[in-house]
Amino acid sequence: MSTDTLKIRRVEIDTYHENVAYLNRQCSVYRAEGFQALSKIEVSVNSTKLLAVLNVVDDDSIVQSGELGLSQQAFKYLNVKEGTLVTVNHAEPPKSMDAVRRKINGERLSQLDFDEISHDIAETRYSKMEMAAFLVATGQNNLDRDELLYLTRAMLQSGERINWHEPLVADKHCIGGIPGNRTSMLVVPIVAAHGMLIPKTSSRAITSPAGTADTMEVLSSVDLMPEQLLEIIREERGCLAWGGTAQLAPVDDMLISVERPLGIDSQGQMVASILSKKLAAGSTHLIIDIPVGPTAKVRHMRQALALRKLFEFVGDRLNIHLEVMITDGRQPIGMGIGPVLEARDIMKVLNNDPDAPADLRQKSLQLAGRIIEFDPDVRGGQGYAIARDILESGRACAKMNNIIKAQGEVVIDLQPGKLCYPVCANQDGSVTHIDNFQVAKIARIAGAPMEKKAGVDLFKKLGDKVSKGDALFQIHAEFPADFNFAKNLAKQNSGYTIGDDEQILKPLIAF
After folding, report:
1. Catalytic choice (115, 120, 252, 265)
2. Is 265 a catalytic residue?
3. pTM to 2 decimals?
């Protein structure tokens, strides 16, 4: 075991949810201890221990012999001054990796297994490669419903849990896969204006061109400290914030940081992620929106019904009142895809603008109405009318403006990216199909959500008549490289199909 000490040096590299350390190849500790690149080390100072993935450096300007460099994440975790002396040792591999290997071999895991895996991830004992192995091992249909319950419970227990000391704390969540589906930003102000508590914490986009947090960030700050968040929610009865700073089910955030670049979004992980976050946020009543369509995340009604049973099974055992709405997922909701474009649509609906997207308005009222019916003073069937009155009276807009100001208003115009390219119909006919995945991909390649003004502005929806040369949608980007990639992708496949009216798929009935 090493007894040599090294001086801490901050290395200005953002490693996003992973502690990374840097040693010079000529460092005596590196040579004596036989460390290898990408191995795990334990850094100790006083009573604090940090586990980090080791990178080996050959450039003295980054870290010198006798120094230990720490990434931004690791330096913040250790919370010491530069130059502080620390000791470095080999880290013991996480014992719970044995359970991951057993899962890879097809074995069924216990609650204890998931608890140990979750604890080791929360303690940063897993590298991103090891988290990826866990995600792949539990991906698709490799978790039975009891394992899914165990995973949800383990993720829930990995962080803080809020108790609002109220009998009814509402929330809603859409499982995703539908571009532009920013209903939360309308549901929250409507429900909060009704007086119900709805503390909406959201994640950032994983595989989509924008998440609720990404779009809300156009209008206000979403990175709020827990005490600030609690104060806003108590005052305004709602919020629209990123959940990452509140330490609610932090293991979920760490897993998402691996899921995002890999494009992984398995059914089991999705259920565990949603329910652990909602329960940690103190929710007692929850609406789950499952859109179904040929290019949605859920493509068949039987899959939606199976997913609903999973949500209900886990929710019932973790004591949350949960209702599932299965909705039409044949096409994007609203007209804008990308943070600024989606924020524009939201504000149009809130301001009762006649040009506001009717589908976004209607779906949001349906969801808000169902949540309002959780209120014991509201009779079944009255929720939609109450929600519509709150929106049309301007109370929802006033509530949204209050939430924006409380979270920290951002001054930004809602004009999309300056580089634009119209994608046009190649024949006469009707829009018979819109590929959600392809349109979302074009928006992401254009720069969304990282570039807030990038994305896709839709001009035509299912059933609309078009003539050859009519613009179907317009790409917006901020940078030429993104713009050219998105333009070329749209030329290869626009995601739109033009044909005869009888080829249009019939809508699903929401229930």
Report:
1. 265
2. yes
3. 0.86
